């Protein structure tokens, strides 16, 4: 690089950074920086990684991405990037990028035991279709499945949800987002009757107290943490509290750090609730006007299989708890029962049922959670003084109760990946609602998300086994009818039976109840706990597994067919972040070789199915719903013909490239501004699939408090995403608050208008006593949920706690970040963080290679006893990005029974020198 | 060759000290200082991969640093970088479109 060019680039980098930081730049410097950009085309885009949703600017030159920078106009990150975001431009240039379809073959034929060989797209789709049709005919719609994603763009998720639900009449599509925020969703729906947060990131600048629960924001949401740090620095009154099981980087600038024992967050929340009640810090006016009290059954199991048939021998003692739980001394106090009592888990099938209780009953529920009880139960560090720990809990409760203090609670996977994940979510709302500190600037409980479109696609589009777009659900006949109307489907095309959640799809592959599956935009064979079972299921069972991926991931390695897939800047897309902000980008460069976007893959596959192959009568074992014969979906072909469809029409013609959608033309000069669209161009049908499908999809939410703007709006130069509901062109800052949210009734002040689960029977803490339902329209629920012990805990044999999660430099299973040399060099492998005393007791030194062994498998890793995570005695942590270490072989596939989200945070292991 | 723009934030009273410290680091150039808010804009130039990666870490390790985040990044085609991907993801002789050996192990 010559000197002049270097100086140009430096001045450009400095100008961009200064602009982002709000520092005035002299005009001469601005002019100089513009020269550096000669020949480079900049366009707005969105970061590929976490749920924060930072805006980035991407520069292309000669068909290649040459630079990225934080978007100074993006309200989320205001020009900053974390280290991962900074390398967005490099993730697609890994040397081992897949550019042709690869299939396992022997002698020119597909063979499950064969070696991968390049094939044409035509050949790949031929085999996919043949295998699909064989399984579909034998087993019906629920013999096939799709592993979807919280990283799908909105059009991608929409194509696959519609193809599966309306086309194949199967609800067996579930995203990896299940592992990420399903517990948060249950918390929202149960409490508010509508998904996603009331507040937004601007709460950070409005609040004066930030409490993080099981959220290492400093590493996992660094840009939001930069905003929190900035707020803390600028105001001495601002206090930060970090509740965690492992001392981490978020503790570094915290005013108060509380290290608690895994699972006892439930007890700490109840202690806070009890303090609020005892000190009469309840905001009675708010609670009386806007809230009701509720509870549900405790005997709901842990989301494991109900049988030990498939368990390894070593797993059987834990699996048995799915049927019967023997209460320990703490659970007995917490649940008002006797220690040693054997409790049959009678509500594993209906864990979400709940009923209204009185405030008096609620008070009786929290009564056992005294400071003494909760402190002894929850103190995480055996070396910490109990009195000092008690003082911390008291201080925490005081911060919450302080009437002069605004407070935001943030959480991520410590809460969501939890055997009672839905409960801990609900209880955080309970605290905020009881105090009236919710849905106001600077006041609220806010669920942070982990994936770029877990909200925008997985949740809002509804790529879950039970969902349809805009919070509609497959088991509600009115919701199905509405969706059938909008999608122009014959009545009763949609399947009312909830499909398999993502862990269950793995279990279905293992027991042979799913024999065809397609993995998209995720890496479930590395990311699902108890992985040894699933790796074996993929390779040893008679099934056909398709994996769409840009790189040879763990999932690709166990596949039968690999489809080379376009990455973020190689296609058009929209993501929705954690604060309800929908953001869009254009295709910047073409995908390499024969790689193609997921939208195209879905549409091409749809071309291979005629209505008569899928809309005839279908067997769905276990289907029982009003208007349906047991176990059957009706033949809807006659009705389809009345609507003008021919049995020989393809799903592509009917669901996607229909008359309406074909009116949306590609090329579209006013939006594209010179950018290409490899999908529209390859289809060559003259339509613009991403735009047509987005505008079709948005019809679901308009007028139903899920309003999105039109496609073109998000591409305007002056728009950096909009927070839904977007009403009359205006985004909504704080929902449920009359001042900001046009959906609130006039004069209500606050209006929790969500519609789901808003009529309930009534009862006491243990049972329903009045089955008649009471309406609680416009109100939020304050739940009582008791402490329950983790099903697996350290014992003599497996004597340490193990938890997994992220590190700053890598994202998820590392398939993108590990291919950026800088990030790889920064953190080349997943280290096992342990306490120096625990290491010493086992004759282990820092940098030793050790075995990590659980009931489910064993793996090797290098030990770190210093560094960024500092576990107290008895605790360990290793991140899951590293396929070489493969921590999910030891993790436990217990789930929250309500949300079906796995608990990656609480396994028992032993560690010994390798 | 990588050039990055980095925003450093310190308490206003430490702006002078921190600027001096930053100046003493190799590859760092100070462009703007806003003493009123403690904001310092620098660029970092790094020849080698490890210098680039350690760059931000050494800045964060300085006393009185509240925040040091990258804002933008320019990179040029660089063989050294391309050659440094993890061994298990690297495949000697892998030509565009061929089958990575790890898939058939």
Q: How do the strands and helices of this protein lay out in sequence?
A:
The complex is a heterodimer of chains A (914) and B (105).
Chain A: H1 3-21, H2 27-36, E1 41-46, E2 55-61, E3 64-70, H3 83-86, E4 102-106, E5 109-110, E6 115-118, H4 121-139, E7 144-148, H5 154-167, E8 173-175, H6 178-192, H7 203-206, E9 209-213, H8 217-220, H9 222-234, E10 239-244, E11 256-259, H10 265-278, H11 284-290, E12 291-295, H12 316-319, E13 324-326, H13 329-334, E14 342-344, E15 355-357, H14 359-366, H15 371-378, H16 386-401, E16 408-411, H17 413-416, H18 421-435, E17 444-447, H19 454-462, H20 477-486, H21 502-511, E18 516-520, H22 524-527, H23 531-540, E19 544-549, H24 554-557, E20 561-564, E21 573-576, E22 581-585, H25 598-606, H26 611-614, E23 618-619, E24 632-633, H27 637-642, H28 651-656, H29 659-662, H30 669-672, H31 678-683, H32 689-697, H33 711-714, E25 722-723, E26 759-763, E27 768-775, E28 780-783, E29 800-803, H34 821-826, E30 831-834, H35 836-841, E31 849-854, E32 857-864, E33 875-877, E34 907-913
Parallel strand pairs in A: 7-8, 7-18, 9-10, 9-16, 10-11, 12-28, 16-17, 18-19, 19-20, 29-33, 30-32
Antiparallel strand pairs in A: 1-2, 2-3, 4-5, 4-6, 4-20, 12-15, 13-14, 21-22, 22-25, 23-24, 26-27, 29-34, 30-33, 31-32, 31-34
Chain B: E1 2-10, H1 15-23, E2 28-34, E3 39-46, H2 49-60, E4 65-75, H3 79-82
Antiparallel strand pairs in B: 1-3, 1-4, 2-3
């Amino acid at each position: 690089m010559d000197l002049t060019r270097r100086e140009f680039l430096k001045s450009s980098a400095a100008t961009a950074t200064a602009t982002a930081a709000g520092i005035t730049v002299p005009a001469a410097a601005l002019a100089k920086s513009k020269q550096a950009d000669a020949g480079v085309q900049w366009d707005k885009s969105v970061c590929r990684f976490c749920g924060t949703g930072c805006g980035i600017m991407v520069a292309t030159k000669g068909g290649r991405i040459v630079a990225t920078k934080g978007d100074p106009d993006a309200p989320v990150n205001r020009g900053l990037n974390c280290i991962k975001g900074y390398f967005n431009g490099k993730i697609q240039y890994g040397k081992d990028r897949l550019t042709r379809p690869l299939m396992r073959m022997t002698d020119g034929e597909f063979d499950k035991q064969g070696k991968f060989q390049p094939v044409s797209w035509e050949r790949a789709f031929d085999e996919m279709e043949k295998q699909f049709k064989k399984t579909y005919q034998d087993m019906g719609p629920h013999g096939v499945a799709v592993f979807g994603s919280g990283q799908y763009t909105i059009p991608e998720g929409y194509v696959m949800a519609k193809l599966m639900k309306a086309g194949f009449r199967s609800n067996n599509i579930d995203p990896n987002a299940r592992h990420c925020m399903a517990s948060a969703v249950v918390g929202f729906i149960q409490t508010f009757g509508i998904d996603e947060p009331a507040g937004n990131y601007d709460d950070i600048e409005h609040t004066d107290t930030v409490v993080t629960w099981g959220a290492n924001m400093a590493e996992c949401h660094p840009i939001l943490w930069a905003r929190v740090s900035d707020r803390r620095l600028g105001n001495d009154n601002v206090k930060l509290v970090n509740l965690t099981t492992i001392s981490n980087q978020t503790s570094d600038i915290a005013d108060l750090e509380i290290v608690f024992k895994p699972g006892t967050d439930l007890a700490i929340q109840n202690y806070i609730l009890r303090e609020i009640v005892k000190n009469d810090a309840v905001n009675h006016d708010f609670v009386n006007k806007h809230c009701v009290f509720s509870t549900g059954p405790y005997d709901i199991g842990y989301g494991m299989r109900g049988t030990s048939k498939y368990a390894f021998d070593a797993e059987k003692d834990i699996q048995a708890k799915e049927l019967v739980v023997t209460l320990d001394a703490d659970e007995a106090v917490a649940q008002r029962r006797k220690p040693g009592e054997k409790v049959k888990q009678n509500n594993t099938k209906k864990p979400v049922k709940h009923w209204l209780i009185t405030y008096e009953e609620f008070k009786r529920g929290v009564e056992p959670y005294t400071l003494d009880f909760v402190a002894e139960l929850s103190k995480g560090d055996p070396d910490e003084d109990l009195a000092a720990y008690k003082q911390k809990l008291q201080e925490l409760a005081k911060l919450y109760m302080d009437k002069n203090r605004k407070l935001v609670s943030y959480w991520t996977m410590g809460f969501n990946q939890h055997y009672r994940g839905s409960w801990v979510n609900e209880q955080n709302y309970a605290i905020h609602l009881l105090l009236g500190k919710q849905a106001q600037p600077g006041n609220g409980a806010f669920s942070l998300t982990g994936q770029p479109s877990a909200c925008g696609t997985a949740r809002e589009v509804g790529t879950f086994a039970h969902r349809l777009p805009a919070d509609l659900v497959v088991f509600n006949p009115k919701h199905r009818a509405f969706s059938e109307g909008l999608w122009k489907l014959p009545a009763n095309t949609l399947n009312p039976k909830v499909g398999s959640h993502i862990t269950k799809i793995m279990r279905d592959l293992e027991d042979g109840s799913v024999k065809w599956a397609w993995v998209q935009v995720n890496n479930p064979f590395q990311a699902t706990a108890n992985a040894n079972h699933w790796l074996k299921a993929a390779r040893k069972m008679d099934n056909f597994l398709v994996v769409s991926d840009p790189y040879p991931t763990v999932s690709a390695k166990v596949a039968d067919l690999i489809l080379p897939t376009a990455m973020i800047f190689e296609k058009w897309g929209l993501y929705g972040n954690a604060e309800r902000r929908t953001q869009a980008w254009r295709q910047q460069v073409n995908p390499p070789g024969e790689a193609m976007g997921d939208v195209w893959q879905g549409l091409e596959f749809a071309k291979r199915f005629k209505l008569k192959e899928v809309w005839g009568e279908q067997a769905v074992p276990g289907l029982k719903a009003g208007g349906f014969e047991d176990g059957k979906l009706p033949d809807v072909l006659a009705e389809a013909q009345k609507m003008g469809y021919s049995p020989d029409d393809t799903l592509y013609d009917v669901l996607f490239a229909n008359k309406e959608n074909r009116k949306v033309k590609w090329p579209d000069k006013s939006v594209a501004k010179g950018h290409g669209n490899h999908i529209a161009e390859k289809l060559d049908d003259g339509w613009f699939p991403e735009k047509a499908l987005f505008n079709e999809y948005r019809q679901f939410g308009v007028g139903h408090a899920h309003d999105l703007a039109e496609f073109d709006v998000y591409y305007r130069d002056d728009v950096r995403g909009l927070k839904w509901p977007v009403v009359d062109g205006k985004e909504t800052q704080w929902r449920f608050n009359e001042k900001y949210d046009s959906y609130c009734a006039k004069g209500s002040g606050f209006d929790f208008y969500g519609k789901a689960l808003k009529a309930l029977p009534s009862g006491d803490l243990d049972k329903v006593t009045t089955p008649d339902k009471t309406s609680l329209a416009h109100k939020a629920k304050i739940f009582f949920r008791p402490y329950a012990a983790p099903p697996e805990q350290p014992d003599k044999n497996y004597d340490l706690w193990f938890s997994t999660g992220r590190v700053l430099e890598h994202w998820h299973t590392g398939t993108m970040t590990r291919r950026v040399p800088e990030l790889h060099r920064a953190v080349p492998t997943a280290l096992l963080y342990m306490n120096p005393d625990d290491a010493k007791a086992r004759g282990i030194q820092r940098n030793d290679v050790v075995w990590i062994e659980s009931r489910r498998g064993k793996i090797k890793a290098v030990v770190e006893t210093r560094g960024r995570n500092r576990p107290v005695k008895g605790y360990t942590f290793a991140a899951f990005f590293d396929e070489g270490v493969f921590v999910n072989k030891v993790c436990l596939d217990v789930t929250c029974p309500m949300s079906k989200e796995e608990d990656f945070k609480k396994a028992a292991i032993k560690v010994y020198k390798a | 060759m990588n050039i990055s723009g980095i925003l450093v934030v310190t308490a206003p009273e430490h702006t002078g000290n921190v600027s001096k410290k930053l100046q003493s680091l190799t590859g760092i150039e100070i462009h703007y200082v806003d003493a009123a808010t403690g904001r310092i804009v620098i660029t970092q130039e790094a020849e080698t991969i490890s210098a680039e990666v350690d760059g931000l870490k050494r800045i964060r390790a300085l006393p009185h640093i509240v925040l040091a985040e990258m804002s933008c990044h320019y990179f040029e085609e660089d063989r050294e970088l391309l050659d440094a991907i993890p061994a298990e993801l690297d495949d000697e002789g892998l030509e565009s479109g061929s089958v990575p050996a790890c898939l058939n192990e």
